[in-house]
């Protein structure tokens, strides 16, 4: 599901809060390109890792 940068930031905030204290597994979030910076700001202080989506015109 793609979100606007603002929606992605709100979602990342909710995810960070909901998953606080879960350290037994790796959590990755891969927002759309235009939301990477906002989501990075939110998850940088958590154990959630940021990933980027790969987009190719033939996929």
TrEMBL record:
Keyword field contains Isomerase: yes
InterPro entries linked: Aldolase_TIM, TIM_sf, Triosephosphate_isomerase
Principal EC category: isomerase
Gene3D superfamilies, per database record: Aldolase class I
UniProt-recorded Gene Ontology molecular function terms: triose-phosphate isomerase activity
SUPFAM superfamilies in alphabetical order: Triosephosphate isomerase (TIM)
Name the UniProt record assigns to this protein: Triose-phosphate isomerase
Species lineage: Bacteria, Thermotogati, Thermotogota, Thermotogae, Thermotogales
